[in-house]
Amino acid sequence: MNRIVALDVDGVLADFDAHWRQCAEQVLGRSVPQVNEDHQLRTRYGLTRRECDAVWRTYHDDEWSRLPLYNHAADLIYALEDLRCQVWAVTSIDPRHESDRVKSLAGLIPAKRVVCVGHDAPAGDKADVLHHLGAVAFLDDHPANANAALGATLVSALLDRGYKGLEPPEHGVTVIDDPMDFPVLVGEMLQRTGMAAAARRPANGLQ
Q1: Are β-strands 137-140 and 155-159 bridged in parallel, bridged antiparallel, or unpaired?
Q2: What pLDDT digit, counting tens, does each position of 25-39 carry?
Q3: pTM of the model
Q4: Which one of 16, 56, 171, 202 is most buried, by most CB atoms within 10 A?
Q5: CB 126, CB 140: distance < 8 Å
């Protein structure tokens, strides 16, 4: 069995929320305070549809490559690699922005391991990618994606960002509030399945 582990990007590795808000303030020329915990950006920041559409146009034009990584991003990936896992990004972004997504990851994940399923793609699309990869673990900040991954991977984890207006995580999804808990979950799974011992064997172990 391989040891492929998949991560969502926005909200897990990259601070999309803060960056989108910054873009909104530049486009609209005013402060854009957060008014609630809604996941939907328009209501989260109290924008009109026209304002939200204007922000998205600018964001799609020139902002995806500028998306900043969280301070924990490198530590999270390195911790998984220390477990001899191969880390992939499975992200809900249009394929036309793939090169920008790769650039924003700053070399932490190679381009060939970045899969873009499309903006507003149904949760099942990520699950299909996980199944195709044979991924053993997955981390996302959207409950629908974590729920859909339950049948496709051994560990499906939800990074709880406190968003409102989303479906609840299903039984079997592990909810965490610290992304660095995810490597712990993966390590426990490797021990439980005997994959950790296989990883220590030289020569024929997965690199």
Answers
A1: parallel
A2: 999 999 999 999 999
A3: 0.91
A4: 16
A5: yes
